[in-house]
Specification:
heterodimer; A: 263 residues; mainly alpha; 88% helix; globular; B: 273 residues; alpha/beta; Rossmann fold; 6-stranded mixed β-sheet; 4-stranded antiparallel β-sheet; 10 strands
Chain lengths: 263, 273
C-alpha cells in the first residue's frame, strides 16, 4: 500500500515537473517565434507560400462545409421560427449564428484538422529526417525559416477562411430558405441587413477568428517542433494538435463570447 | 570570436571533454585534435559516443566539462550569433543526407548560398553547377530528393555541405547503407573535396576498410574514451586487442559477444533448484 502511494506521488511529481518544463519550453519557443518573425517577413515569399498551403488549399473544405452548415441552419431555423410565425426572420438567424459563432468556430475546427495537422506533420517529419538540424548547422535558424512563415501563414489565412465560411453559410441558408422553402427573398435580405451590426457582430466574429488562428497555428508549429523524432512521435503530435486546437477554440470561444456579447 | 590563422594550431582541439545526457555519462575525458588539411576518422561501436562527439564539435551540444575549440574559438563561450558565424565556415553531412524534401537537388545545393550571400542568381547557378559537377550530379539538378538513390542523396548532401567552401567538413556515418560502388565514390569524394578545398574533415564511421583508405588519422572511441589512435598503417598493424577486434570484425574480444549475465549453466540449472 505504502509502495503504491509512493509510486503514485512520484509519477504525479514527474508529470508536474514535465508539464512545467514543457510550459517553459513553449514560452521560450513563442518568444523566439516572435523575435524571428521580423526575419520571416523580410522574406515575404515564404509566408505567402504558407498562406497558399494553409489558406488556399483549405478553401474547398471551407466552402463545402460552410454551404452545408448554412443549409442545415436554414432547415432547422425555419422549422423553429415558423412555429412562432417568424419564418421571414430566417435570414437574421442564419447570419447572426454564422458571423458570431459558427463561422469562426467551425472554420477554426476545420482549419485545425486540415491545415494545423499538415503543418505539424511537415515540421515533425523535417525534424525526424534531420532537416531542421541540417538547417541549424548551416547557420540558418529553423524557427525563422520554417516555423515563423507557417505560423503567420495560418494566422493570416484564418480570418479569410472564417469570412468565406460565413458567406457560404448565408448562401446555403438562402438556398434552402428562399429557393426551396419559399421564404420571401426581400424579407430574408432586408431583415438580415437591419439586424446584423458590422462592429458588434461582424467585427467581433473577425476578432474571434484571428484569436483562433493564432491559437491553432501556435499549437500546430509547437507540436511539430517539439515532437519525438520518430513515426510514432509525429503521429502523436498530430493527434495532440487536433485535440488541443479543438479544446482551445471552444474554451477561447466561451471566454471571448462572455466579453463580447453580454447583452 | 577570434580566428587564429596560424597553421600550427589544430583546427579542432578537444581537451578533457566530458558529456552526459542527464545522469547517463556519454563522454568521459576525450582529448582529440584535427590539424588543417587532415581527414580524421572517429570509429567505435554503436553507442560509444561518436556522434555526440561530432555534435559537440558542431556546437549542437555543450560539453559539461573540458574545452572544445574550433578555429581558435572556445565553443562554450560563443553566443548564438558567433556560433552561427563559425558554422558558416563548417559543412556537415548527415547520416541520410537530410536533404530538404520540398526542394529540388539544385535548390538544396543553392540553399546555403542564397541564405548567406548576396550573389546574383547567375553566379549562384554557376557555383551550384560546379559543386554538382564535382560530385558527378550536374545532370540531376531538376530531380527531387525522393527520386534519388541513397548514394546520390549522399553526394547531393556533400555538394550542399561544401557549397560555401568550408574550412571544416563533418560526416556522420557517410558510408551507412551504401552499395560498394557508391561507397567507393563517396569515399573518394570526401578525400578529393577535402584536398581541393584545403579543408579539414572529420568522419564518424563504422566502415573500417573504406575509411582507412582515405583518412590521415584514426581515433577509436569506446565507452566514452579514446582507446586507441594512429595513422591507418599503425591501426592496421596494431596489436591492441580492441583495435584488432574492430578492424578484423571479430565477434568476441574486449567488446564481448554476450551481454553481461550469470553463467549459462547456472541460468539453466538455477530454475530447477
Amino acid at each position: 500500500m505504502m509502495g503504491r502511494s509512493v509510486s503514485f506521488v512520484r509519477r504525479l511529481g514527474a508529470s508536474v515537473v514535465d508539464g512545467i518544463w514543457r510550459l517553459g519550453f513553449a514560452t521560450r519557443f513563442m518568444v523566439l517565434l516572435l523575435v524571428y518573425s521580423g526575419q520571416s517577413f523580410r522574406r515575404l515569399h515564404l509566408t505567402i507560400r504558407e498562406i497558399y498551403f494553409s489558406g488556399v488549399l483549405s478553401l474547398l473544405i471551407i466552402i463545402v462545409s460552410g454551404l452545408f452548415v448554412g443549409m442545415v441552419l436554414g432547415l432547422q431555423g425555419y422549422e423553429t421560427l415558423q412555429r412562432f410565425g417568424s419564418g421571414d426572420a430566417l435570414g437574421v438567424l442564419v447570419a447572426l449564428s454564422l458571423t458570431r459563432e459558427l463561422g469562426p468556430v467551425v472554420a477554426g475546427l476545420l482549419f485545425a484538422s486540415r491545415a494545423g495537422s499538415a503543418v505539424t506533420a511537415e515540421i515533425g517529419l523535417m525534424k525526424t529526417t534531420e532537416q531542421l538540424k541540417a538547417m541549424d548547422m548551416m547557420a540558418v535558424s529553423p524557427i525563422a525559416r520554417v516555423v515563423a512563415p507557417r505560423f503567420w501563414g495560418g494566422v493570416i489565412s484564418m480570418p479569410f477562411l472564417a469570412a468565406i465560411f460565413s458567406t457560404m453559410g448565408v448562401v446555403g441558408g438562402w438556398l434552402i430558405g428562399v429557393v426551396f422553402i419559399g421564404v420571401d427573398a426581400g424579407a430574408f435580405w432586408s431583415q438580415m441587413q437591419a439586424a446584423v451590426d458590422f462592429r458588434y457582430d461582424v467585427l467581433n466574429g473577425v476578432i474571434k477568428s484571428v484569436v483562433f488562428g493564432v491559437a491553432v497555428s501556435l499549437i500546430a508549429v509547437f507540436e511539430g517542433y517539439d515532437c519525438t523524432p520518430t513515426a510514432e512521435g509525429v503521429s502523436r503530435a498530430i493527434t495532440r494538435t487536433v485535440v488541443s486546437s479543438a479544446l482551445a477554440i471552444l474554451a477561447l470561444d466561451f471566454v471571448l463570447t462572455s466579453f463580447m456579447f453580454r447583452g | 570570436m577570434s580566428f587564429d590563422p596560424t597553421h600550427d594550431e589544430p583546427l579542432v582541439c578537444l581537451k578533457d571533454v566530458h558529456f552526459a545526457y542527464g545522469e547517463r555519462s556519454i563522454l568521459k575525458g576525450i582529448d582529440l585534435s584535427v590539424r588543417r588539411g587532415q581527414v580524421v576518422a572517429i570509429m567505435g561501436g554503436s553507442g560509444s559516443g561518436k556522434t555526440t562527439l561530432l555534435r559537440l564539435i558542431g556546437g549542437q551540444l555543450r560539453a559539461s566539462q573540458g574545452e572544445v575549440r574550433v578555429a581558435g574559438s572556445d565553443l562554450s563561450r560563443l553566443g548564438r550569433n558567433d556560433l552561427y558565424a563559425l558554422r558558416r565556415r563548417m559543412g556537415m553531412l548527415f547520416q541520410f543526407g537530410a536533404l530538404f524534401t520540398d526542394m529540388t537537388v539544385y535548390d538544396n545545393v543553392a540553399f546555403p548560398l542564397r541564405e548567406h550571400t548576396d550573389l546574383p542568381p547567375e553566379v549562384v547557378r554557376d557555383l551550384v553547377l560546379m559543386k554538382l559537377d564535382a560530385v558527378g550530379l550536374r545532370g540531376a539538378g531538376a530531380l527531387m530528393p525522393a527520386e534519388l538513390s541513397g548514394g546520390m542523396a549522399r553526394r547531393v548532401a556533400l555538394a550542399r555541405a561544401v557549397a560555401l567552401d568550408p574550412m571544416l567538413i563533418m560526416y556522420d556515418e557517410p558510408f551507412a547503407g551504401l552499395d560498394p560502388i557508391s561507397l567507393g565514390v563517396v569515399g573518394q569524394l570526401i578525400r578529393r573535396l577535402n584536398d581541393a578545398l584545403g579543408a579539414s574533415s572529420i568522419l564518424v564511421t563504422h566502415d573500417v576498410h573504406e575509411s582507412l583508405e582515405i583518412v590521415d588519422y584514426v581515433y577509436f572511441v569506446s565507452d566514452g574514451r579514446i582507446v586507441a589512435a594512429g595513422s591507418p598503417d599503425e591501426i592496421r598493424a596494431s596489436t591492441d586487442p580492441f583495435v584488432h577486434q574492430f578492424v578484423h570484425a571479430e565477434i568476441d574480444g574486449p567488446v564481448p559477444f554476450h551481454y553481461p549475465a550469470e553463467p549459462i549453466a547456472q541460468a539453466l540449472l538455477g530454475g530447477r533448484g
